[in-house]
Amino acid sequence: MPDWLPLPDGVESAGAFLALGSLSAMLFSMTKAGFGGSAGLLAVPLMIFACGGDVLLAAGILLPILIAADYVAVASWLGKWNARAVGMLLPGTVVGVAAGWAVLRLLGRIEGVEGGRELTNAWLKLGVGALALGFVGLQAARSLRGRPLAFRPVFWQGTVAGTTAGFTSTLAHAAGPIVGMYMLPQQMPKGQFVASTAVYFWFANQVKLVPYYAEDMINFDTLGAGLVLLPAIAAGAVLGIYLHRKVGQRPFTGIVYTLLALAGAGLVYHGVKALWLL
């Protein structure tokens, strides 16, 4: 590995990290700036591969990248979000992040249990993927019966969604399908949907800084690795805004649902594969 690259010891190949890590950062930034949350799930496995399969290292590198992309996205869609829809998620998100922190701390204290961390990640990916696929299937069935009425969540529904999103986001940056399941049925205009998703993840990722710093998942090594990927974040933001403006309302919704289904299928596949090999 070149000495001038500030990469953590867990990164086995500088070339693989630069290629896969840049693609991961670009995809996250692109989806935040123009296509909403669920497509970003496709970037998580890329970063894990870039880090040689180290899930916690990948998560630690990703969080500052996500926050940088969040600031770009929020600035791009300033004031255009649905305050009611986002606000209902926030209390539950804090609870979910705290629960995820408890699991991270528990995993950090488990010694002598082979595959314990991998088992948790596998079940988490399987559960989130199944929820995503189930949601897409439900929406497809509803569309065959005519245009569904817009969903107007009440407080308990937002709290449940926020808690689940905060928990899965803390453990695996995997809250995209859950936030999509909450936001998409409300049938917001596409700009409001993207803005609402962006400001929600801005909040959630700021809260996640607390457990990540406490568990030493963010340090000088991971911050240095993130700095290497900053150009990819800027490029992804520009591309995301451009594509958003070029895609109409109906194609946009179709693209988001398609990417949500792909992300869900990918998570189920990786979860089942990991459980099979444990």
- The quaternary organization reads as single chain
Distance between the termini: 31 Å
Main sheet overview: none
Q: Which percent range describes the beta-strand content?
A: under 5%
Structural class: mainly alpha
Poorly predicted regions: none
Mean pLDDT score, rounded? Answer: 82
The coarse overall form would be globular
Percent range of helical residues: over 70%
In total, how many beta strands? 0
Count of alpha/pi helices: 11
**Order of helix and strand elements from N to C terminus:** HHHHHHHHHHH
- The value of Rg in angstroms is 18 Å
What is the count of distinct domains? 1
Please explain how this structure is put together.
The protein is mainly α. It has one domain (14-277). The protein is built from 11 helices and no strands. Helix 1 packs antiparallel against helix 2 (43-50), helix 3 (55-76) packs across helix 8 and helix 5 packs antiparallel against helix 11 (249-277).
Concise overview:
This protein has 278 residues and is mainly alpha-helical. The chain contains 11 helices and no strands.
Name its key features.
single chain, 278 residues, mainly alpha, 77% helix, globular
Secondary structure layout:
Blueprint: H1 14-35, H2 43-50, H3 55-76, H4 83-109, H5 116-144, H6 155-172, H7 176-183, H8 190-214, H9 220-228, H10 230-246, H11 249-277
